[in-house]
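So, can you check these tokens?
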Amino acid sequence: MAHDPNFIVALRGYDMKQVRALLRQGEAALASDSPAERAAAAEALRRPTFTVRLRGYDRQQVEAYIGLLAERLAPR
């Protein structure tokens, strides 16, 4: 999974800083051995809240990527 995905910048997209911050949290949790960190990141990914901006990341792309990241953090 790419650390910095190339999302399309679209009209009425998700706030780019907020998306990048959540992705950093998810990627850090993937690299962590801490079950608590992984669980917290998975929860944040299941219920993300982003501001919609005039210009932001394409919402469908972000949601699809976050879904994949959340699956990778799911307990096994």
